[in-house]
Amino acid sequence: MQAGSASSPPSRTVSASLGQRLLETAIRGWLGFALRTTRWRFEATPQARALLLQERGDGRQPGLLVAFWHEALALSPALWWWTEPRNPSMRLHVLISRNNDGRLIARIVTPWRIPPIHGSSDKKGKNKGGAAALRQIRQVLAQGHTVAVMPDGPKGPRRVIQPGILALAEKSGIPILPVGVQCTCLRASSWDRMILPLPFGRGRIVCGEPVHVKPGEREAAGQTLTLRLTTAQDEAGQPADTYPDTLASMPAQSVAEGPARIPSEPNRAAPARPPILWSILTSLLAPGLVVMLRVRVRRGKEISSRTRERLGFAAMRRPDGPLIWIHAASVGETLSVIPVIRIIMERPSAPAILVTTGTVTAAAILTRELPEAMQAGRIRHSFVPLDVPRWIRRFLHEWRPDGLVLTESELWPNMIGACNAAGLPVMLVNGRLSRSALTGWRKLPRMAGNMMSALSWIAARSPEDAARFRMLGASNVFCDGDLKTAAPPLAADATALDAARKAIGERPVWIAASTHPGEEKQILDAAKILRKAYPDLLTIIAPRHPERGAAIAEEVKAAFPSQDHTPRRSQGEWSDATAPVWIVDTLGELGILFRLSRIVFMGNSLIAPDIPIAGGGHNPLEPARLGCAILTGPAIDNFEEAFAALGDAVSIVHSAQELANRVKTLLDDPIQAEELGRMGERVATRDRNLPTRLADLICRTCRTP
């Protein structure tokens, strides 16, 4: 009995060991066979590709964190099999839990030259090896290796970031590369709905923009990583027929590199019902909207002689031939779409263009940037009609456009519905949809869905925006880049620039651009701090709304009581030799200012209890395009992708003291300011062909020459 019982355990152990080895071999064989027979397509942003291939240009081999959702764990080797031939120096490690399932996975992938690091985030006082794993990861990252992490593992919740990866990225300064992987597969019934690949299928690997975790900003970085990981995974799972791409006609074995591009053939929108409730509401509000227009005239926000245009009346005759209607709400949207307009106008037998704007300043920008075409009547301007059904119908009847191009986030249900009912294609270029806007539209799912189905196509400015549009029901969505990275540098009048430089002389200068009410106090507080180190410092303030120049001058007087007069550009005044502040309260002169100093703070971004602004930031690519080092407050939701793309070229400040400290650092070290400016300039000028591609697609969609 004792002998027999003593001999049983070894027998069972041998049997279990043999069965385990057979199971590992079977899983490894099936997984390898399925992944290697899948026809993969690889898509990566320029930054993601550079990180994977270690194309930094400085000779160093940086470490890299790569994040997958846990559901894609079985597919992750496909990324390394694509990367390794192109970057033989890559050394990959994978973080896996130290439970039985984790050990099984480790034994499966180790023969593929993917050594495991065992551990996961410690929870409820239980030691799961997280601290030891973090130490080991930091060591391999310091050696320039790559570590793959599933941040929602080992047991979820599904697609919820655990804190370990954020702490690691913050302490090490290593970026996190979000990756999505999908292929022809089955789904397991596990908590993460694990993807189980099938052989001879099709697959897609999508690498998003890297996430940098700055000190003290883990929460914001966690939200960004969650969004980008989800976006990448959802993008990877999009079927080819709903994700138009010029690469769709390539041989299946080819590898596509780069983001999804403009489709070779435009789609036609499906008929959509008009938004009945919204139509009734806006019709009832029409009398109040007329009163609102009169109030805006008194405030200088409307032109009295042109308010009828807001009711849909045409102030001029429609030109003969094809006509494309392009709507740009304000200054930023107008500047971004002007390169597309120029390309359309250069085409043989170019159609006429009607540009509508919602602000007087945007209309002035259009006249300034395209004077010859405006004077010749090839481009015509009208203020956009308010979104009242009968006003929109009147506008369409008088202008009879061949198609409507909207920019960024200008989504008006009645306008889109009326065009759809008239059989006109509606397109959205540089589509932008913030998290807050998505939340708002999801409260009106039927209206949002009808509106999205009425759009012929959406050219989103980023993968994140594309994913948000799809969440609202849009299908004809692609991402080919941000128009604001394709725009030329802001123009500058040579005579005015020369006069400004002579007036300033050799004084140190920094610029606060596109500021909003309440921010100027913070800026002036920073200026007072800075003048202790630089007594002759000049602070230039360029408010977003020039009519606020007089009010800002009063704030300057309160901040610098010894200064008798503050020069204002709107009064034809240049800075003198002693003025601490120069207010540039004019339109269209940021191109001059961004050439006067490399140090630029972008407004509408500082948050404080006494600052009554909603925030959202302003376009940082404009100063970046001219080689400026950029500072901003934390409220940058409207341009978060642009700021993320600029990365370390941007400094975020939270107070007047932080603003002063950062400006002083850059004044003390002009070489650092120059390097940051060059870094931002490379990002801001990386795609100059996007306007041409969009112009071609617009003309094809409108069926114009």
UniProtKB/TrEMBL annotation:
One of its GO terms (cellular component) is plasma membrane. It catalyses: lipid IVA (E. coli) + CMP-3-deoxy-beta-D-manno-octulosonate = alpha-Kdo-(2->6)-lipid IVA (E. coli) + CMP + H(+). It comes from the Bacteria. Keywords: Transferase. InterPro entries: DUF374, Glycos_transf_N, Glycos_transf_N_sf, Kdotransferase. It is an enzyme of class 2 (transferase). The active site is at E333. Residues 306-486 form the 3-deoxy-D-manno-octulosonic-acid transferase N-terminal domain. Residues 87-158 form the DUF374 domain. One of its GO terms (molecular function) is Kdo transferase activity. Its EC number is 2.4.99.12. The record marks E408, K484 as: Transition state stabilizer. Pathway: Bacterial outer membrane biogenesis; LPS core biosynthesis. GO terms for biological process: lipid A biosynthetic process; lipopolysaccharide core region biosynthetic process. PANTHER family: 3-DEOXY-D-MANNO-OCTULOSONIC ACID TRANSFERASE, MITOCHONDRIAL-RELATED, 3-DEOXY-MANNO-OCTULOSONATE CYTIDYLYLTRANSFERASE. Involved in lipopolysaccharide (LPS) biosynthesis. Catalyzes the transfer of 3-deoxy-D-manno-octulosonate (Kdo) residue(s) from CMP-Kdo to lipid IV(A), the tetraacyldisaccharide-1,4'-bisphosphate precursor of lipid A. This is 3-deoxy-D-manno-octulosonic acid transferase. It comes from Acetobacter aceti.
